[in-house]
User: Fold these one by one.
Assistant:
Number 1:
Amino acid sequence: MRITKKRYLQSFLIVTVVLAIVRLLFPSIANNRTAQTAVRQREAADSVGMRSDTAHAGQAIAVAQAGEAGNDTDKVVLEGTYLSKLAPSPLPSLRYSAGVSPFFKSDGSLRHTPIYSVPGYQRTFEDQQDVQLVSASKWGIQPVQNRDEAARRKSGLVFVGSNPYVYIDKLHSSIPYLVPRASILLQDIGRSYFDSLTMKGIPLHKIIVTSVLRSKDDVERLRGHNGNATQNSCHLYGTTFDVCYNRYKTVEPPGEQRRVVRNDTLKYILAEVLRDMREEKRCYVKYEVNQGCFHITVR
């Protein structure tokens, strides 16, 4: 046993001496190892920093993937138009200062805010057709005559489908396409609505979109029975959508029934969200009495 231990110590000393000699004769080896360690440390830091960027990109891709229920043409439009036009779109300013959570107090308890609604819907949301049409003409596409022309003129439009924040109703007089700027606005309204519901302790509900892009033929048919439909409708430009205020889609896991919330309560909260978006100059909003919806055009 003593001989084995002695030989082990001798071998260890020999190896140590050899390594020391190698480092003296070839110092570049030690420098390379140090450089490799620094590279690995930078890569680790970069991977952490990329998580934030990946999260933002993932949100954009998630919006695009919402249209997977459509056909292959829709997917091409999403990848070729939406993602390429997303980058230059101006991002809205942060509503909350850095380090301040809108959901929790400083002691870690859940933050709740009361429901105020708005002082009169028609007075608060009074943006008429002439005002919204200026913005629609600025940001929108050239109107299309019919559905066939719309299918050939999808350049500059993105598919909008139901997703975690928004429910697209069955469309009878429009097709589910918007310009990218309006699509981002719709997503932001849905997400802000979720935030407001959470902060007020209300079970989650999705907003319901009832009308999107219309062709000239769609508008002509609507004018026969819809007094609010105008010949030069903002819906022709892909910048405008309608969100109903008397129906909402309840979010609940399969087999679980959430507590019932009055539609009026949900309407109050939606009105607060739209008022904030309007005051931030992101959209124009008209309160439609007969059609039961908020008529919204991106700015």
Number 2:
Amino acid sequence: MPVLRTPAPIPALVLASALLLTACGSSGDDAKPQETSATGHPVTLDNCGHKVTLKAPPKRAVSLDQGTTEILLSLGLADRMAGTATWTDPVMKGLEKANASVPRLADNYPSFEKVLDAEPDFVTASFVSTLGKGGVATREQFDKLGVPAYVSPSDCSGKDNDSGGDGSRGKPLTLDAVYGEIRDLARAFGVEERGEKVVGELKERVRKATDGLNASGVSLMYWFANSQSPYLAGCCGAPGAITRAVGAKNAFADTHDEWPQINWETVADRDPHVIVIGDLTRKQQTAETAEVKIRFLETNAATRSLTAVRKKRYVLLSGQAMNPSIRTVEGIEKVAAGLRDFGLAK
């Protein structure tokens, strides 16, 4: 659940310079027939209703959200990244060294100017809102500068991003959307074999985590952030994919909103068996860390008598695991392990 801020306006001089660079770099290309390179380029991706064409593998990609950043790093592309931004958690384990080699443009949204200063030849984002009004910049702004912009298909496939809040889903998200993003980005960079390897490893992790697991009848509640008006997971986003994988049910499966804000009295009525808690390191909402969330649950009059609270049935996840990303698989593993530890899985 990204929190948006309005980026700073970009000076005319910077825009003019960027346009000049783009014009110089593409001079005469449009008049020539495109030839296929050894990497299969040019490549055109069908992406959230847009055609994204890359004439060559990117050399200076900028990832505007942590989800796409961790995919690029997992594909071994740190040396072709010029910047990252918008972080909710520490980087995924095993990627620390690669991540340290890539400049961090901002912990949250960078300004459009900051992104252009990195001289990107490809921009990726996890959320439609990142490349929309109120985000870093629109796709059209990048298109005018000749910079291809790609959005995670998991944030647009079967999802209405204009319904308010964090959007709503008419169709449940599946991990195939995440796997599709990995394959898209691998193709964009000409490293398809790496993409298939990453997808294969993720599928095997899901198989191992859920093998023989039966948690039917167990209700889960996913709390991302905010104590006054908590953001809790609806039916069909990443938490829905986790819930289906472990064979449990979501306490708020009756809402299609991605992250609806639901009052604690309603939570008490649903009385979930297990609470899956977002353990975030950012500082944008109240109750970001798991420690603060648990303290609230155990002291608040509306929540301290919940079954999950009395029995301390908490599963802690990174924010990235609760958003559609490569780490949703990590979410499946941790929730499955928690259900077994609590004696709730048959």
